[in-house]
Design brief:
With 74 residues, the protein is an alpha+beta fold. The chain contains 2 helices and 5 strands.
């Protein structure tokens, strides 16, 4: 997954939300490299704990991305 600077991702995510999307922050663990997706919709976290190795990643410094979902979520 490609990672982008924090400010760029936030700007793009806000546009997706304004267009009716629901976004989920994605990032890569700095320790083991596993792709992670946050559970909380439409919010971004500066730090993340890897579900695999439990390492803490500085997401704001390392970059992130997001997944956008359009339409009905059940």
């Amino acid at each position: 997954m490609n990672l982008y600077p924090w400010d760029d991702v936030i700007e793009r995510a806000e546009m997706a939300i304004a267009q009716g999307g629901t976004v989920y922050q994605q990032w890569n663990c700095a320790a083991c490299g596993v792709k992670q997706t946050m559970d909380s919709a439409n919010s971004f976290h500066e730090l993340g704990i890897c579900e695999e190795c439990k390492a803490v990643t500085d997401i704001k410094a390392n970059g992130c991305n997001f997944m956008a979902v359009y339409g009905r979520i059940k």
